[in-house]
Amino acid sequence: MVYVTTKYNPHKQMTIEEMFTNPFGTRQRSKRSITATRTVRFDDRVSDRLLDNIDVVRLIKTLHDFNVSTKELREQDRNSLYTTFFVPKRSGGLRQIDAPNSDLMDALRILRRIFEDQFNALYHTTAYAYIPGRCTVDALKVHQANESKWFVSLDLHNFFGSTTLDFMMSQFAMVFPFSEVVKVPSGAQELRTALSLATKDNVLPQGTPISPLITNIMMIPIDFELTKRLRDFEKNHFVNTRYADDFDISCKYDFDYHKVEALVREILADFNAPFTINERKTHYCSSSGKNYQLGLLLNKDNEITVGHKVKRQFMNMLHHYVLDRRNGNPWDLHDIQVLKGKYEYYHSVEANATDGIVEYMNRKLNANIPRLLSDDLKS
After folding, report:
1. Which of 3, 59, 102, 284 has minimal Cβ neighbours within 10 Å of its Cβ?
2. CA dist 308 to 150, 304, 312, 346, Å?
3. What is the DSSP letter of 279?
């Protein structure tokens, strides 16, 4: 099977032929505001029309030139090229981050551009992480548009750390035009060599400029099959989104989430995926309860909100910020940046509610909080 993905305008009806009218690699690229994609599966081989739009020899040469230019990097001890540190997870515990040094960072950025510009690497339309113009709010809007009332969230355990080079190759071999490159023995070797530079200890590290892109490419077949199977699963219509290692699946009606979980396991097994579902993080709920998806809430009125608890915490932060400033105990720059970041994020989710909170605190404290933040950040 081969999966072909292109950007398309969801507000314009297009046939499959119309989607591929322009040469491969230039379709819709000027329309940066369009983030929706369309994936088509070819069970045998892609059409001659698609093949005419790529130059396999040129793609292989591009990979070969990259591999030659990075030969010295690949000959070095891979661990010596990384700085490893840990950051707190939102759900608790620590997340390992492997940051490449400047030379490796530059090389991986070049490889990312090769995949994006030469291979036109995209993502399945249900993917929302690591994509310019998409965020957690956009992912939740998919479920909002469906007027979903019941939700299950499934988390893949050790998503990056389980992604081996062999799995990357097996998945890329099904994604056009990588699929055509690997049909040529030298092409398969050049792609494997290039991808190997993006690995550490034979798995995909978290913290490099190309790891997110690789995950979205390799997940295209899995995202496609899951979306297709869920459209009419157990006589219900489901919608789904994926944010990195989080699958969020919803329906208008109550459902047996164990069957949905079993379906995800089945599809992962079909692709010999090395991931397992972290059952401790499986969450099933309705919009009448604590229906938090990706840190946001889709409530019983089908509204996306940060939740009352978060709003109260935000009000307390504003209160302490203003009073501490007046009492000669100004916050340090990092804490002010955190407050400003929360302010902007909450505003992007609920503009009216956030503006209302700030206006209320302005009146209560006789202050102009946006101006105070701006002045402190400038100083």
Report:
1. 102
2. 20, 12, 6, 12
3. G
